[in-house]
Design brief:
Helix content is 40%, strand content 15%. It contains twelve helices and seven strands. It has a five-stranded antiparallel beta sheet, with helices on one face. The chain has a two-stranded antiparallel ribbon with strand order 6-7. The relative contact order is 0.13. The structure holds adenosine-5'-diphosphate. This is MAP kinase kinase Wis1.
């Protein structure tokens, strides 16, 4: 069954990122609300067809920690990607309220399980772990999206990458040209460590007032950032420190992370994620919510 644009009732814009725009849509034949991501690419039809083919493996990607994939198609030079609608959007909207350790633990556990599922079931490395790629729904479920399943798509996006906050691991930074060759699970684990700190503290952990070169220099040559010891337990801080091991060859992989005493403890706890998600989303709406704010001109 191939999903098409004609079947969609297109609703509001949910957000836009570096590569395109995500809209809420209603899929008429199945009555399922979906999120439709549009990615504009300067590619020929053959390359676009290849992307759609490569995305097809996602039909097998059923996991409670991964945003469901419903299908993809292209129109002119845009790829359209249909996925599960996640009511509350990405973590970056929900963290300014400050995140208690129990909640942070559950978010981390879901993310690690999602990343391990991608690796074990699809042999896929995510390549873009960051707060905007971790989504939350009304049930308080936390799921990953935007993983690098299509080699063709990874290549095209890498060429147009213009991010100003880098979640890239130190070993990745001076190797941008060879990104298809050297990417490992350990690079995702680094990005996970940075993501946990950002979600916990409400801000990206490196100094973004300096230029990009200074930032990358700090990642490669500086000490890795830490979870604030005043607010988080020694176990949580140790977990993050391990993710942010600078030497990639000794950085832990997922089975080891899942056995870390912090996640073992988190797994045994009953945490009301639904209540946290609803309250944080309420605060997000109160701050002005989904309004697209025009950048200030100095
Ligand atoms: P980015 O490049 O920042 O990852 P995306 O283009 O992937 O951005 O998405 C833009 C925004 O749209 C996200 O930050 C998120 O808030 C929202 N969004 C993306 N996917 C979904 C989804 N499946 N359900 C609900 N909101 C989504």
């Amino acid at each position: 069954y191939n999903i098409t644009m004609k079947e969609m009732e297109v609703l509001e814009v949910l957000g836009s990122g570096q590569y395109g725009t995500v809209r809420r849509v209603y899929h008429r034949p199945t009555c399922v609300p979906m999120a439709l991501k549009e990615i504009r690419l300067e590619l020929n039809n053959q390359a676009l067809r290849q992307i759609i083919m490569e995305l097809d493996v996602l039909h097998k990607a059923r996991s409670p920690y991964i945003v469901d994939f419903y299908g993809a198609f292209f129109i002119e030079s845009c790829v359209y990607y249909c996925m599960e609608f996640m009511d509350y959007g990405s973590l970056d909207r929900l963290y300014p309220a400050g995140i208690p350790e129990d909640i942070l633990g559950k978010i981390t556990l879901s993310t690690v399980r999602g990343l391990m599922f991608l690796k074990d079931e699809l042999n896929v490395i995510h390549r873009d772990v960051k707060p905007t790629n971790i989504l939350v729904n009304k049930k308080g479920e936390v799921k990953l999206c935007d993983f690098g399943v299509s080699g063709q798509l990874n290549q095209s996006l890498a060429k147009t990458h213009v991010g100003c906050q880098s979640y890239m691991a130190p070993e990745r930074i001076f190797d941008v040209e060879n990104s298809a060759v050297g990417y490992t699970i350990q690079s995702d684990v680094w990005s996970l460590g940075l993501t946990i700190i950002e979600v916990a503290t409400g801000r990206y952990p490196y100094d973004i007032s300096t230029n990009m070169f200074e930032q990358l220099n700090a990642i490669v040559h500086g000490d890795p950032p830490k979870l604030p010891e005043s607010r988080y337990s020694p176990l949580a801080c140790d977990f993050v420190a391990r993710c942010l091991t600078k030497l990639s060859t000794v950085r832990p992989a997922y089975p080891e992370l899942l056995q870390h005493p912090w996640l073992v403890e988190v797994d045994a706890k009953d945490v009301d994620m639904e209540d946290w998600a609803a309250r944080s989303y309420g605060l997000y709406l109160a701050r002005g919510g989904n309004r697209q704010v025009a950048p200030l001109i100095k």
